[in-house]
Each structure stands twice: as structure tokens, then as C-alpha cells.
Amino acid sequence: MDKNTFLESKSDVIDKHVSNDYKRQSNFELLRIFAMLFIIGHHFSVHSGFVFSDSSISIERVWLQFISMGGKLGIDLFIMISGYFLIKVQSIKISKAVKLWLIMFTYSVGIYLVFFFTHKVPSFDGQYFLCCLFPVASNQWGFATNYFILFLLVPLINKALNNIDRKTYRNYLILFFILWSVLPTLTGFFVIFNATYGLSDLLWFIYLYAFAGYIRLYFDVKKHKPYFYFSIALCSSIFILIFFILTNKSATYPLYFSDQADYFYKPQYITCFIVAVFIFLFFASLNMRYSKIINIIASSVFGVYLIHDNFLMRTKLWMGIIHGTDYQYSLKIIPYSIGVVIIIFCVCSIIELIRIYLIEKPYMKFFARLDKNK
Prior knowledge:
The protein is an all-alpha fold. The chain has helices at about 5-15, 25-45, 60-70, 70-85, 95-115, 125-135, 140-160, 165-185, 190-195, 200-220, 225-250, 270-285, 290-300, 300-310, 310-320, 335-370. Helix 5 (about 95-115) runs antiparallel to helix 7, helix 8 (about 165-185) runs antiparallel to helix 9 (about 190-195) and helix 8 (about 165-185) packs across helix 10 (about 200-220).
């Protein structure tokens, strides 16, 4: 098989869960790649075991706090990409739902078996293995579970959103933005507002989906040049970075701000949401030529997430292999963290592309027939 045929075969079997009239645009596929890099950076920061004293402030500490927010940005971006392209879909294909579930099943069971046969787990745990067999029901991955449920709800959500007028659509977006983003951010009563107004991760995903859908239906992303959106996203990011620095500086005093350096981490908070929106608009406004290589790499990002953030893999990877704390008090932590993120992405991406070609392609031919027989 020559190189072009090999690449084309991979493109054919990649499921981006988008409408049939959408030829995968490389600007959005590139955004998927960056979103996953943001998420891996977040995991480097929060899972490596970094601990700083309350009285310390350093470039290393601020850097780790800053990249930690990348995971929240990545989540918002992934859902908005889905909402932007799925908003016009009237029904979901059985094959796509099955494919999404099977990729989770493959890594849930596969990683456990690898750890068992390599003696990385002390003994066979029947109860845990049962959880691996049902990755969605057992919530093996929080983001993946909520995304799968969102995907199943797409026809219902679209039916509602496509059958209301623009003004009503816009007003509901504003209302829930105030209830779920503005008020919690300004007051800090995140848990209280969640309990009062029923916000959950899944409902926030639905909001992001609806928000991006509104952009697709009613907003001309080409109205402004890309640098306009980039400038706003950059200014918002700089504001957050300054906040990190100021709150860490205040950590030397017994002030309220001493434990508020991560205040804007939540994906629902205004600043994080605004940064995600304008990063999304920046990529949406790019006039980028179709790139088969970018699209193929982007097709692996969901698998990259499932591999490196598996429960068993998480501890082994960050504590047993990466050892980021070795550079906790050195400026080397910046290039080291960037290198680690890129390497993890590349290794997991290769594994996922091999899975797609050797495992997914054969069985998806069968499920594709189910769609034709509907």
C-alpha cells in the first residue's frame, strides 16, 4: 500500500461526529490538536504532585498555574467545535454512536489488561474489570462520559434549537450565561449557584453546544479579521496571568486572595469562557487550506485523551515516568513541560492511529451497514 492510499484509508475511517455536509476543515482540526495539547498541559500541572508553600512565589509556580487552566479551555473548545458542526444534524448514525462507545471500551479494557499482564496491578480485580467493560456507566472518564451523552442528545437538542426564533435563542443564551457564568464568577459562590440553578458538567456542555450552534446559524465569523479575535483572547489570557501573579504575591500575607490563584480555572467562569470563545472564533475565521496531515493527526485526539488520562495510566505516567517535580524549583520546568506535552501527544496519537487502522476499520464496515438499512 502506498503512502497516499494509507493516508486516505485513515481519513475514511475517522469519525469526527459532524454533519454529512461538512468536509473537515483543517483550521478546526488544528484547533482540536491545540485543545488536546492544552488538556495534556493541564494534566501535567495537576497530576504530577507539585506542592508549593503558601509563602512562595516563583515563575515556576505561576507557569504551572497558568497551564493548568488549559484543560478547562480545551474542554470548552472541544464542545464548541461539536456544536458548531452538529447544530444542523437531524439524526445521529448508529455507527457513529457505536464507534464512540467502542473506542472508550477498547482503551478501558485494553489498558487494564496490559497493566494486569505486566504485573502493574497486584491481582485481578473482578469488580474493577466489570467497570472497565462499561466505561460510560462507570464513568471511567468524566469528560468522555458527558460527551457521549451529549452526542446521543444531539437530535433532541437540535430539534429544540432549530425550532425557536433567533431572539428567543439569543435571550436564553444570555440568561444562562448570567446564571451559570457571570454570577458565580462575580460572587465566588460557584457551588451555591450550581445547586440553585442546576448546573452540571453535562448542562454546561449543552450550553457550549448551543452557544456554538448560534454562532454557526446567525454569526458571520468572517466579519472580523482573525487578529481581532486573537487580540481579545490574548488580552484576556494576559489578565488571567497577571491575576495569578498578584494572588501568589498576596500569598505572603494572611489575605483572602492567598488561596485564590486558581479562581478562574473553572470552564464556566467568565474569563476562561471568553478566552475559549475568542480562540474558537480566531480559528473559525482563518482561511486555511485543507491539510490531510493535520486532519489525520486531529482524528487521534480523542484517543490521546483516553490513553493518557486513563485512571491506571494517570498515576504511572505522571508519578512513575515523567517526574515533573524534579524540576519544580527550576526554570527548566517550562521547556520540560512543553516537551513532555508534545511527546505524550505524539506517542498516544501513534497508538490511536494504529488502533483506527488495524481494529476500527474492519468492524466499522459492519456497523456502517446498519445505517444503510435504517
